[in-house]
Amino acid sequence: IVHETGHTCSYKTCGTDETKGKWVDWKKAMDDDKTSVSGYATAAIAEDVAETIRVYVSTKGSPRAAEYQNIVPHRFAILKTEYDK
């Protein structure tokens, strides 16, 4: 459910054109992080966003959150800015 909600949130926040706006920022973060939170996240940018949101939400406040923060720091920084308001 969190993964699918991640799609909804990302399209609401970033729009549906994955070639402009905040999607470009996400793509840069993907390139800078050089890895993904899951194999499925590598299927497409929208899947990467949804999977990263899933991990971000499901590990928040736990020791695992710090582990993922080290793995995908650029993407977690975007999520913190967008969703921790």
Structure, briefly:
The chain is mainly alpha-helical and 85 residues long. It has five helices and no strands.
Provide the descriptors you would attach to this structure in a database record.
mainly alpha; globular; 85 residues; 5 helices; single chain
Please give a structural write-up.
With 85 residues, the chain is mainly α. 71% of the residues lie in helices and 0% in strands. The chain is built from 5 helices and no strands. Helix 2 runs antiparallel to helix 5 (73-83). The longest helix is centred in the middle third of the chain and has 15 residues, at 45-59.
The tally of helices reads 5
Shape: globular
Largest sheet: none
Straight-line N-to-C gap: 22 Å
Provide the low-confidence segments as ranges. Answer: none
Average pLDDT for all residues: 95
Q: What fraction strand?
A: under 5%
Helical content (DSSP H or I, runs of 4+): over 70%
Structural class: mainly alpha
Number of strands: 0
Gyration radius over CA: 12 Å
Series of secondary-structure elements, N-terminal to C-terminal: HHHHH
Topology:
Blueprint: H1 2-14, H2 22-33, H3 45-59, H4 63-71, H5 73-83
